[in-house]
Amino acid sequence: MAYYPSSDDILEADAFIKTFQNYIVARTSNTMTTTYQTYSNISGAQARGIVLQAIHHFHELPGPFSGLFVNANATLVDATADVIQGQGRSILPLSYPFTFNVEEGYDKGAYHAHLSESYTSRKLFAVGSDPSTNVYTQPMFGMNADIEYDVTPQWQAFFQVHNIRNTVLEFTQSASRQFPIQREYYGQDFLFGIHYHL
User: pTM to 2 decimals?
Assistant: First the structure.
């Protein structure tokens, strides 16, 4: 369902339901000396969700401010399956219950600037022998920025920064951050240069 307040604005809401056949699940097992990971297929996995999106350009603002815009979307998912036999339905591994993306930007004349944020909620990464040994990835919030200037209709100078917050990919045993297993840092990426459009 979508509503268009103007030619380049939108308010949209969609719902979906999807059934998966032979969904692949990672499983972790522990012995006295090591931890190892295997994979298996499960049946009956299902995901239901809602997707919301809004885009608005502030053309009603005076002068140069009329180049401002915002683009946002959010997804809520209820994904479940019989992950462990005899324990009933539980959250589907590798599915995010909640995600959102927001982009604030400016496009007017030769100037273009975009700041984007993204969020993913905690997810079940691998299934253990019981809930206390499940492996999760913790919530992540990232930011990127992109600035461009049209020197001529063909030449464009740009500057980009990715992963501004140096977002951490964090794995934990159980859903609690009190039991960390692994943290991965990727640092910021800086990129600048010139584009030529034919």
Answer: 0.85
